[in-house]
Each structure stands twice: as C-alpha cells, then as structure tokens.
Amino acid sequence: MNILALAFCLLSAISAFAASTPCANNPDTRQLDYWIGSWTLPSSNGSGTTTSNVHLSLDQCMFVEHWENGKGHVTEKMFAYSPEDKKWAGMFADNEGRVHIFPDGVVSSGKAEFRGPSRGPNGELILHRLTVVRTAPNKLQETWEKSTDNGANWSTAYSAEYVRANR
Asked: pTM score, two decimals?
C-alpha cells in the first residue's frame, strides 16, 4: 500500500514539474538538445585548448553556450525558441565588447541557422549568419559568416569542429 502511495506521489510531482516547465515537453524547444554537453575544439596548429559547454537555463527554455579559447577570449551565446513567433532567436557577447543579436533563427533536423544585422566600424551594414550542424553523434560544425552585400555573398569569419568531450 505504501509503495502505491509513493508511486502516486512521484507521478503527481513529475506531472506538476512538466506542467510548470512548458519548454521541457515542447518538441520545438528541444530541437537543439544535440548541442547540450561539454565539447573540445581541436586546434589545427596545437595552440591552446578551446572548450565549449552548453547547458539549459530558464526552466529548460534557453540554451547557453560558454566558449573559451584557452588564451583569454571568452564568449557566451544564448538561443531560445519563441512559440508566439514560431522561430528561434539568439544573442552573442564576448569579453572584448562585441555583441550580436540574431533575431531570425531556424532549427531543424540537426542544423541550426541564425541571422542578424550589425554595423561595421564605418557604420556599414553587416549581415551575420551563424550555423551549427550536427555532423555525427559526437561532432558538430559551427560556422560564422559575414556579408556586406545583404546576403548575396558570404565570407567565413570563423569555422570550427566541436568534438564531444564526455563520450
């Protein structure tokens, strides 16, 4: 009898938790789950160890990446799905004073793409495109591209392979 009562209480608590965290059970907000975890970014020239740790925040509604290149450069990226807008949005900030907003994001089937504008040093419009692609169960490819002609042509500013640290 006590086991049955305990099981009922446990199921009630799980149901209450699931109801209070709507992002935990929404398949749209779970599309970036493949990115959660600890990652290393192998260096082609052996200089420094770059790491990335991705976790959930705000009752599992926001993905947060903390990235360090081992030489003092630190960034954080935040991404979340808006059920009202039916799209993803994100933000990048680093310890060198850069901030980029990505108001237009699409995530599907192991690929995420985020876009957003900023201004260059002379006030020119620069469009940013950040993609995170799952290339294998324990590997990702992240690419940051920039366009100065409203997306007609793109140049790669950064590209890295992520390898899961805890396999």
From this structure: 0.82
